[in-house]
Amino acid sequence: MAQTQEQTVSTGDTPFVPIEKIVSLCKRRGFVYPNSEIYGGVSGIYDFGPLGVELRNNIRRFWWWSMVQTNDNVVGIEGAIITHPRVWEASGHVENFVDRLVDCKNCKRRFRYDHLPEENVRQNTCPVCGGELTEPRTFNLMMETYIGVVEGERMKTYLRGEASQNIYLDYDNVLKSSRMAIPYGICQIGKAFRNEVTPGNFLFRQREFEQWDLQFFVHPSQMQQWFDYWRERRFEWYKGIINHKDRLRFRAHGPDELAHYAKQAFDIEYQTVIGWQEWEGIHWRQDWDLSRHSQYSGQDLSYTDPETKERYIPWIVETSGGVDRTFLNLLLDAYEEEPPSGKDKEGRTVLRLNPMLAPVKVAVLPLQKNKEELVTTAKELHSKLRRLMVSQYDDVANIGRRYRRQDEIGTPFCVTIDFTTLEDQTVTIRERDSMSQIRLHMNEVPAYLLERVRWDYSV
Ligand code: ATP
Questions:
Q1: What pairs with residue 282 in β-bridges?
Q2: Is any ligand 1 atom within 6 A of the Cβ of residue 196?
Q3: Segment among 149-153, 248-252, 347-351 with least mean pLDDT
Q4: 248 in Cβ contact with 269 (< 8 Å)
Q5: Is 210 in the pocket of ligand 1 (CB under 6 A)?
Q6: Mean pLDDT, rounded, for 241-251
Q7: Among the atoms of ligand 1, which is closest to the Cα of residue 320?
């Protein structure tokens, strides 16, 4: 389906959430703002607000924790956005990182040629209005920049089009400076820049975005085994953080999509209102990247096995996904408008985010604002909790309104200080999804909450 269009479709009994609802929530509650909005904005570039940055940090940290911290054979790096321009010649980006685009002569909409439905390609028609399309034109997606101050002596280079190249560049340094031996992996999270010809669908396709990559280096004889291993691990990782498990699938690349060196490749796809779309790619990169950089740099990037003394260029399994698509997919997955029910007479909007990723973990609420003892006790508890997790103190509006405000931003727990608290030091803990409530002694609250919001990754 064309990326510029949205369709409200549904499968089963849960309708897909229109992206506009997420855009509106994100702006209203401080998750995401259009970049340079007071100047009219820049298409495909966004800023993240107070809640957005918390959610983003949690997503990043969780990925890092489960990929680097909990695997002895994986380490991390953080490479620069600007590299030597030869890097992008070696990688093939200067020559081949192109999109073909067509314009509709009638409605003036623009489409990526490879995203057009087959029927429209055959008939050369616009998928929106049926108008005639222009001939495809080719655009390079790399963003150019210049290093140096003297005109004429400045070196043209690029903002990186994908983050993973830094890993190949540092592969040998990591090997020599750490105690790693093959098989081992290097991870990185970092910004990438692409002059996308059709940015759209909010955070799905941007011009500045953030990628996460694992490049796992193996002996050729072990390639299949590690490819299968990481393919499954990454699928389970995504499955572990969403509610709609049936909306996740693998899509195997067909022979016409595979790079010449790739035996196989899979996309992990997630289904939303814009259809099934790539969330992360699992790629068989063989010895392509290290061989190319050896060739272009003149440096020998082969590996000598310390035991067998065999010398070879390692093969690579790549898993490459995005912070922004994860951010968007998690919101689309978690957003729900609940009609009025027995428990909630007004109905509510709730973000059913996994508690460990939720931007705010707990809200501390005095039942009434005008009772000093309630307020003091609540503020004391809040100041204890905020050292351990993101906690919000809120005493504005009635308690039902405050619960709903927290539900809408995905806060998994609300702690209410009421008159019983003043007698026996117990508080009410309300859980976001079930709206069920329990009473606990105040001293037990930190440990109770920590247990429920901690990283939980058992694969
Ligand atoms: P597509 O076919 O959708 O353009 P791609 O195959 O070019 O994507 P990769 O180069 O494999 O994507 O990038 C790896 C990951 O980076 C993607 O799975 C996606 O999560 C993320 N990503 C890629 N392009 C963008 C973008 N323009 N905006 C946001 N995230 C992106």
A1: 266, 319
A2: yes
A3: 149-153
A4: yes
A5: no
A6: 97
A7: 14
> Residue 346: what pLDDT?
82
If one residue of 45, 114, 211 were mutated to test the ligand 1 pocket, choosing by the most ligand atoms within 8 A of its CB, it would be: 211
Concatenated DSSP letters of 146-172: EESSSTTTPEEEEE-S-TTHHHHHHHH
Give the Å distance between the CA of 372 and the centre of ligand 1. 53
Query: Are the beta carbons of 140 and 146 closer than 8 angstroms?
Result: no
Per-residue pLDDT at 233: 97
Query: Ligand 1 pocket, 213 CB below 6 A?
Result: no
Phi, then psi, of 74 in degrees rounded to 5: -135, 135
Query: What is the total residue count of the chain?
Result: 459
Task: Please list, residue by residue across 79-108, b when 16 or more beta carbons sit within 10 angstroms of its beta carbon and e when fewer do.
Answer: beeebebebbebbebbeebebebbbbeeee
Going from the Cα of 206 to the center of ligand 1, the distance in angstroms, rounded, reads 9
Residue nearest to atom 25 of ligand 1 (CA): 205
Model pTM? 0.92
Report whether residue 324 contacts ligand 1, using a CB cutoff of 6 Å.
Answer: yes
Q: What pLDDT is attached to residue 150?
A: 78
Q: CB-based burial of residue 76 (10 Å sphere; 0-12 exposed, 13-18 middle, 19+ buried)?
A: middle
322 C-alpha to ligand 1 centroid (Å): 7
pLDDT digits (tens, 9 = 90+) for 16-41: 999 999 999 999 999 999 999 999 99
Q: How confident is the model at residue 457 (pLDDT cuts 50, 70, 90)?
A: low
State how far the Cα of 351 lies from the Cα of 335, in Å rounded to an integer: 5
Quick check: CB of 319 below 6 Å from ligand 1?
no
Q: Dump pLDDT digits (tens) for 392-445.
A: 999 999 999 999 999 999 999 999 999 999 999 999 999 999 999 999 999 999
Q: What is the per-residue pLDDT for 147?
A: 92
Give distance in angstroms: CA of 140 to centre of ligand 1: 15
Residue 276 pLDDT more than 90?
Answer: yes
Atom of ligand 1 nearest to the CA of 267: 18
**Does residue 251's CB lie within 6 angstroms of at least one atom of ligand 1?**
no
Residue 358, CA distances (Å) to 332, 408, 411, 452 in order: 14, 11, 6, 12
The pLDDT of residue 13: 64
Q: Whose CA is nearest to atom 24 of ligand 1?
A: 205
